[in-house]
Records
---
Amino acid sequence: MTRSRLLASLLALAAAAGCVRRAPPPDLSLDPPTLAAQVRAAQERVRSVRGQVHVRIETPEFSGTVPALVAAELPDRVLVQTVDFFGNSVAVLATADGALSLYDARAKVVYRGAATPENLSRLVPLPISPANLARILCGSAPLVPGEAVSAEPGRGFVTLTIEAGKRSQVLQIGAGAEVQRASVRVGGGEGKGSYDLEFSGFDALEGLRFPGEAKLSAEQPRVRMRLAWADAELNAALDARTFSPRVPAGVRVVDLSQTTPPALLVPPDARPHPE
């Protein structure tokens, strides 16, 4: 083979390799409704999770990292128990069957109310519902209930767009129909309810692909949250009582509608930002 032919062959191989890298996963449909259905089917692979996480929270007022014990079960059951350096409970947030409770172990107070996005945001400064939080903890992005309007191929992924009135969602879908990134926009911008979500560190756990890290950010209110799993057990059989913790004796019970509780899921060692 002459030098020129060898060079031409190498260039052709490089071009072919480039085409492979630019190609979307072959198992994904480029028909928007079909791709959305693939994502929903893939989300059914993980219905529950429990384990230990490290949660990093940053707001304009506070920032810090806290260890927590977490359990979640679809569609809307969540338990987040933050602990101190010695493993003692600091706060326990639980949602199940439309009810929400938060136990402040330091003040010995239990706050109770409806499991609404508004009540959850009073405790965790994020523009999401308990059901959406459960979905994120189970390793995927909640899909807005709308019409899948486009599916654009990319390098190793397909970008899916869903429109739902004033809300729109753009998702980056990888092989196996797993969600890698998702952005929700309200009113076409950064309005209340808009957020960005990113999953990374995917690994095989119990034969399933699961992200070791999730990052969520929003602007109204401004918050950054990073959740890193120290260990996770997928599809564990969780007792329903896990999400309805017993109220300890001697603890005061307060209705959430009658008070503004402290931001108890902000890390206990958090430091206020300087003025």
---
Amino acid sequence: MIKDLNVQNTMVPILNKIKKDCFVDGYKAYDAEAFGLLLSKYFKWDGDYIVEASFHALEDANFHELHKRFKKTYEDWLDESYEVNELDWNNTASPLHY
């Protein structure tokens, strides 16, 4: 319990600063929004790292089935996106157009 309190005591000022500095004036951002912004900025908008962090968070919170389904969905999405984004080397267009 003491470790959990330390995490909250550390994060609250950070989240409050993000809410104050990163959202438009007058908007009341929720902690989850501010944390999401922190997460995306920390990982420099790299979706793979953001998703991996989400996997670990779900596991830590004992949402094992959700983690499993999310991971499967993400892996399926990766397979589909790689198929769509592969270069068509038979195409005569310049690769710079991709």
---
Amino acid sequence: MKICYISEFAKPYSIGGVETILDQEARYMRDKGHELVLICFSSLNSRFKLNIEKDDIFNRRYIINRDPKIDLRNKIKKFLNLIYSYLNFRDLIMINTILKSENPDIIHLHYIRNLLLRRYLFSKDNIIYSSHDYSFICPRGGLLRRKGKICEKPHIVCLLWQWLSGIKRCKRIIAVSNFVKNMLIKYGINSHYVYSIPNFIDDDPLSYDGEKKISGDIKFILLYVGRLQKQKGVHLLVELIKMFKQEDKVELWIVGDGEEIENLQCAAGADSRIRFWGRIKKEKLSWFYNNANLLLLPSICPETFGLVIVEAMDHGLPVIAFRVGAVTELVENGKNGFIVDIGDIEGMKSKIDLLRSDVKLYELMSSLNYIRAKSFSKDNHCHMLEKIYHLVSASKKTR
């Protein structure tokens, strides 16, 4: 079977959640003997040039080079660049040419910003789309309105956005959680077209193999891993840590980068209990999970899945998160962590204090999380995905 993956982002040109999932899926399918092709984008080389390469995963890797980076501080250039990225025909023509040449059995789309290109791809009978975010139904991509409130129903602009992208044309959509599946259905997608296949974590040789222990004599480390954006709510964690006394021996470790880094550092000031580690390579994240005591997820936008939650669970970390999106599918309140209302940092602090004082509860949650994380395996995910591939391939051959 020939599978063509298409994604705006792919390793090694960028590293993130989408890139990691695509990379691991492709490695699995390669080991199963499938022929793999990748179409991705890069701005590392000269503009408008198409590079064709081969590596140990993909038989052919088509790299479409975008324009060199522009000065996004110029508002006019930023606006024009945004319009171009959503509505340019050049990408559509180039990808159409590649697909005609390759004639793949499966086209697996992970992420594309271009609305016209999405509309074209969604009309294909052999397309499968993995919905990693809400960009298929929300122009902002996070289901948040201007004042930070969660969007409950689509605005007329959102409906126009959906029509432009042609999402309703796609007959096979992979939702990474039941929450995303329900949102798709709520926004008018036929439920028969949506498959729920949760994301996964790769086997980590450095994950802990036992129970985490805590003691009042040593520091209690609170960990955040992710992008530093307003909708991720990291600023609330800075407020949270200031609620603890110095003698409480509580520290906050912030792993990640993003546009909010300067604002967060300014808010943290000279507080030595707040440590910014920057962006850490995935293979080095285990050290942070192993040395932390608790994962905090303060997102104020609906999470589509929450991969860092499962990664933390695999290292025996209890989790405290806001009640939003798919988080409640991973964290059972009072069993393997705690769920508190959005923005309730006092409630979050009370749960932290509870886990610090109740060693048995902490160790029970730690043990349960380690066991549960094993169900989110690459083999389970890719086995379900391969079934869909065979279904699509069989239907293509009968036409």
